[in-house]
Design goal:
The chain is an alpha/beta fold. The chain is built from 8 helices and 7 strands; from the N terminus they run E-H-H-E-H-E-H-E-H-E-H-E-H-H-E. Helix 5 (120-132) links the parallel strand 4 (109-113) and strand 5 (143-147).
């Protein structure tokens, strides 16, 4: 992937840690070109899993800040929607939040979770991002990629119509250790090997995708549109 045309990049994450799992090796490469990289976390990240636990909510977003600092992310934007319950939010409301953000910040490139993920929040966000980024006169978005999330994308493949089919691979051999360091900041999300969100599995996954295209480590993406 050539990042030369990406000057203002938006990483869309349903939950804290999705951005590292999907784009954690590519973000430092984008930043090397002096591009702006912002992160929007579209849910509160914990209200369903840890109902009433404000402490874990605060902890998760501190972890997000720590990971963002490691990756070089410029700004974290938070939407107020409920974790794991985006199906209770109107499609129009979610669309509007993304539209307002993109219109205000004038991003040219967006990375978003794939529609084939098993996580319903991911699917709904994917569709809302496509609505917000649809090509019309003066639309700032030129390129959209979907990305792979460990423990969500591969489980989505169990449904025959939901395969993640990457067509773009980024060589992250020089940044794999940064990705692992950033994920290490998410202590509340890490799991023991052989869980897909263990540090060992994340490295192995990057190795698997890299070996498909002759790299030591890679992050896979699906190019949705480029204009």
């Amino acid at each position: 992937m050539n990042f030369a045309s990406s000057e203002k990049v938006l990483i869309v994450a349903a939950h804290p840690d999705d951005e590292v799992l999907g784009v954690g090796g590519s973000i430092p490469l984008i930043k090397k070109r002096d591009s702006i990289v912002d992160l929007v976390i579209a849910t509160d990240g914990s209200s369903t899993q840890y109902e009433g636990d404000d402490e874990i909510l605060t902890k998760k977003f501190q972890e997000a800040k720590d990971a963002a600092k490691i990756l070089g992310i410029d700004e974290i934007i938070r939407f107020p929607f409920p974790d794991m319950r985006l199906d209770s939010v109107s499609h129009a409301s979610l669309n509007t939040e993304f539209e307002k953000l993109i219109r205000r910040k004038r991003y040219d490139t967006v990375f978003v979770q794939d529609k084939g993920d098993i996580n319903l929040d991911h699917k709904l966000i994917y569709h809302s991002v496509l609505v917000a980024c649809r090509p019309y006169p003066n639309q700032s978005i030129k390129t959209i990629y979907s990305y792979y999330v460990n423990s969500s994308s591969e489980w989505g493949a169990m449904e025959s119509q939901s395969f993640f089919t990457p067509n773009v691979y980024v060589d992250i051999s020089e940044t794999i250790d940064i990705k692992i360091k950033a994920m290490s900041a998410y202590k509340s999300e890490l799991r023991a090997y052989p869980h897909p969100r263990s540090l060992r599995s994340i490295r192995t996954s990057a190795e698997f995708f890299g070996n498909q295209v002759g790299y030591e480590f890679a992050e896979p993406f699906k190019l949705i549109i480029s204009r």
